[in-house]
Design goal:
Length: 246
């Protein structure tokens, strides 16, 4: 059994889907979870369900808000032991129809948000000298590409390259940086896709089912635990066999 007692975990995108399952799972394992999301209403409900933790409103596309949140967290709780970047968003449409505003939003939410959260929270971790675990959520779209999600795939591929490079820089500080890459997952975001696409994906997945948010949270839990103390710079695909790619 994984025990995260006395660990402080910071989770973005925690109000629903994979983020909610992750926050709940980490709290059940004993961590004190600081759950963040732009959706204050859903986040407040989550906080009531957490075994141990709290909710704070955070827009990961706002650099100043990230810095402010990180400073407040350090003042209130000290350095984080676990950072999980889940917040993200996408909409399927042909690349040539992507507006400049859409492209900017995709990159800000799915890539730069993770970069800025890591940078803001790493300084007190490094100064504290006790190490930490960072788990960045990418997507199998970032590993193998995905039609209709070209900019999203590029942003999520950037998360993978960023995480591998960060893992090299942070190893001397005892910080492990790993990536979980979900395949199609039963979240509110996925349910907004068109029915033909959903049916095609179900047929393509060897297990013939979508991932549940808990399936992804379990992979995150492993990387966040001491069972992954000698693992860094790695990418775990949780896709039901959809992308059997090295």
């Amino acid at each position: 059994m994984i025990n995260l007692s006395n660990k402080k975990a910071f989770v973005t995108g925690a109000a629903s889907g994979i983020g909610r399952a992750t926050a709940t799972t980490l709290a059940e394992a004993g961590a004190y979870v600081i759950a963040t999301d732009i959706d204050e209403s859903a986040g407040t409900k989550l906080a009531k369900d957490l075994k141990s933790g709290e909710f704070r409103t955070l827009d990961v596309t706002d650099p100043d808000a990230i810095i402010s949140c990180a400073n407040q967290l350090t003042n209130d709780h000290g350095p984080m032991d676990i950072i999980v970047n889940v917040a993200g968003w996408d909409k399927t449409e042909p690349f040539m129809e992507n507006s400049p505003e859409f492209i900017e939003k995709i990159v800000q939410l799915n890539y730069l948000g993770q970069v800025r959260v890591c940078q803001a929270l790493l300084k007190p971790i490094i100064e504290g000298g006790k190490g930490a675990k960072i788990v960045n959520v990418s997507s199998d779209a970032g590993r193998v590409g995905s039609m209709g999600e070209t900019v999203y795939a590029g942003a999520k591929g950037g998360v993978i390259a960023f995480s591998k490079s960060l893992a090299r820089e942070m190893a001397r500080h005892g910080v492990c940086v790993n990536v979980v890459a979900p395949g199609p997952t039963d979240t509110p975001l996925f349910q907004g896709q068109n029915e033909r696409l959903k049916e095609a994906l179900l047929r393509a997945i060897p297990f013939r089912r979508l991932a549940q948010p808990q399936d992804i949270a379990d992979g995150i839990l492993y990387f966040a635990s001491n069972r992954a103390d000698y693992v860094t710079g790695q990418v775990l695909s949780v896709s039901g066999g959809l992308t059997m790619h090295g």
